[in-house]
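Q: I'm writing a short explainer about Aminotransferase class V-fold PLP-dependent enzyme for a general audience and would like to include a description of its predicted shape. Could you first generate the structure from this sequence?
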Amino acid sequence: MTFDDAAILAELDALRAADAPTHGGRVLSYVYDAGMPQLDELAAEAARRMQAVNGLDPTTFTSVAALERDVLAFALETLGGAAGTVTSGGTESCLLAVKTARDLWRAGGGSGIGRIVAPVTAHAAFRKAAELFDLRFDGVPVDPATGTLDASAITARLGDDVALVVVSAPSYPFAAMDPIADVAAACAASGISCHVDACIGGWILPFWPDDVPEWTLRVPGVTSLSADLHKYGYAPKGVSVLLHATRDRQRAQYFATTDWPGYPVVNPTLLGSKSAGALAAAWAIIRALGTDGFRDLAARTAQATHALSAAIGGIEGLRVVGSPTGPLLAVATDEQAAPDRRVDPHHWSDAARAAGWMLQQQPGLVQGDGTRLPHTTHLTVTPVTDAAALVPDLVAAADAARGVPPVDAEQVRQTLPAQLPATLDADTAGALLQGMGLGGGGALPEQMAPFLALVEALPHPVVERLLVELLARAVEP
Ligand SMILES: *Cc1c(COP(=O)(O)O)cnc(C)c1O
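A: Of course. Here's the predicted structure. Afterward I'll give you a sentence or two in plain language.
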């Protein structure tokens, strides 16, 4: 059989050309570019050599065991803990942390619907875990001005029905470092599991040049920790680690059965057959960079973060939320400014987008205590973020947006029928999207501010259903 591989790959290249750029620092979320083409090549080559291997069985494919041992040795040395697993990503690490804690909680006598207690800023993966593993997510309000968590807000909610407490290092939305030592100590005193979600911070905070409060598995009371190698480990997507304080806790993560007539199934992860490509890529990157390489990249990232933070803090009408730790920050309207001098962060990021910079818009959120977290724009800074190029465009974008009032969500909502059915079927949801100008195969509008205002204004179940429809239609043939 012959095939025209050049034509097939040309078709793929044409599709890829329409993507947001994965390299060069123009997209300030999702992608983590070390700015080292040689490192990318090495990672790709390592992954390629594992292409035909099945990561399901490291006793048959012993290279998989060797690579995982090496990656875990580096992870445990850097982040503490006694045992761990390489997973397919942050969500899987978080899901497995919850499953493990739930099983240990049940083994300790827990029954009924247990709770996950976490700040509302904890990653949505923990809400997903609660749904999947029959737990209830109990979101604890954070300070609405700074996004920071008070440890006592967590400890006040501890009880026999708590299967797991989650804190972040740092939180994704606001880069807030949760009070990990205080929360973990309280958990230890009550015999409750405490997970540190360092999916985003785990591979950069250990090398960060500024002082960071203790947050690893070396903190007494921390029982597990997640850290994504496909973020600041600069690996291709599909690799993270979940570490545990003790071997026995890690063993509770496994699923094992001999109760069927096929091969004995013994899985530490959610998947069965799986790729070892991203594992090999991460392994090669760790080999190549070593601690010094990670430190250099963190230093570059820190420099860009400080420059951006100072510049944005100096823009009239905007403010950086709280005191961000690590390479992220969130930007909100400065309510201290006179109304006609304020800058709406979503109009601002729409203007920056027109100049070729993709910043991530985050909706506001009313917390359980009635306080409102402002809508913000998020920036994830990487080693290639060029603050000198970005800052003038951010200043110009603010000048363009200054004094423009935020989108009136109520007005946007009125473009929808007043009475929405309680449950939307695919046709109705599709028609609503069409009416909103969002019918076009997954492409989002140039101006995202009205879209985000709608996300904030609609009842959550309705907007969640509409977003499901939008994403489902994006991939429907
Ligand atoms: C990215 C992230 C996750 C989820 O990770 P995925 O790799 O996207 O599945 C969880 N927690 C935090 C803090 C994150 O930044």
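A: For your explainer, you could say: Residues 89-91, 94, 123, 125, 168, 172, 197, 199-200, 228 surround pyridoxal-5'-phosphate (CB under 6 Å).
Q: Perfect, that's easy to follow.
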